[in-house]
């Protein structure tokens, strides 16, 4: 029983000692409040100075996706003229253009990041797990600057992609023109060979007619005449046919004139880069209303906390040293 009481007393005295120490700590801080306030003021002054000289960061964002059909109408019409039914579909062209845009934009972002004074330009999917739409952003030292620069870089990449697409189209036009011209030459050669063969056949029939003494036609229905029976037309008719065939223009099939029409259509193709776009806006570049850094409120709050902590540390440390010296003596 005595031990229990004694332990309770000891425990009670220990609790009183801890309570006295806490009160003493609060009293020390209160007495040193001027010092603490001075440190808080100094910290605030430093924070204000930092806010005044720190470089601001503002981020403008935009959301883009594949171009509309009307934005690539001239390009798709040109591809259809070039390749007809074999031309890629409009959806494929739209996907190809936005893919080109994304690659070119990423390359530009990498180039800007590797400059002596890096610029932060980013592009990424707007929705996780989906390739489109794309979220693009740019960080600048002012809200207007961020918005203007982002718009400028988007337009710059769009123009570059359009020029590349038109350059590819011009190469396709040259290649397809050569192919069609070669096709025309081949058909003309075949038509000339057919004409020469026809004349040789008539001359051969004339020779047989002269040998057989057939001068006048021996048949009435000329549509039934074959190579073997052509001599029955008579030598006079065959001579007239030879003269007629020699001056007769070449005879071509319908595919020849279709090829010529395609060649003329391609020759009239005129597609300028300004009529081709590789993207369309879902959301135009925003004008940011809140800067990324420095954060004024957070900076000031941290300055107060830091100043108060340093001031409290100085007060408590000074009092500890003051109380420590008499004990050391």
UniProtKB/TrEMBL annotation:
UniProt keyword Flavoprotein present: no
Q: What are the entry keywords?
A: Cell inner membrane, Cell membrane, Lipopolysaccharide biosynthesis, Membrane, Transmembrane, Transmembrane helix
* Protein origin, superkingdom: Bacteria
Involved pathway(s): Bacterial outer membrane biogenesis; lipopolysaccharide biosynthesis
Q: Where in the cell is it found?
A: Cell inner membrane
MF terms from GO for this chain are: protein tyrosine kinase activity
The annotated topology with respect to the bilayer is: Multi-pass membrane protein
Its BP terms in the Gene Ontology are: lipopolysaccharide biosynthetic process
Kindly list the GO CC terms recorded for this protein. Answer: plasma membrane
Where the record annotates domain Polysaccharide chain length determinant N-terminal, the positions are 18-121
Q: Where are the transmembrane segments?
A: 34-53, 297-316
Tell me if Glycoprotein is a UniProt keyword of this record. Answer: no
Q: What is its main location?
A: membrane
Family, as annotated: Belongs to the WzzB/Cld/Rol family.
Report the NCBIfam families cross-referenced here: PRK15471.1 (NF012015)
* The protein, known as: Chain length determinant protein
Q: Organism source for this protein?
A: Intestinirhabdus alba
Name of the gene encoding the protein in the UniProt record: wzzB
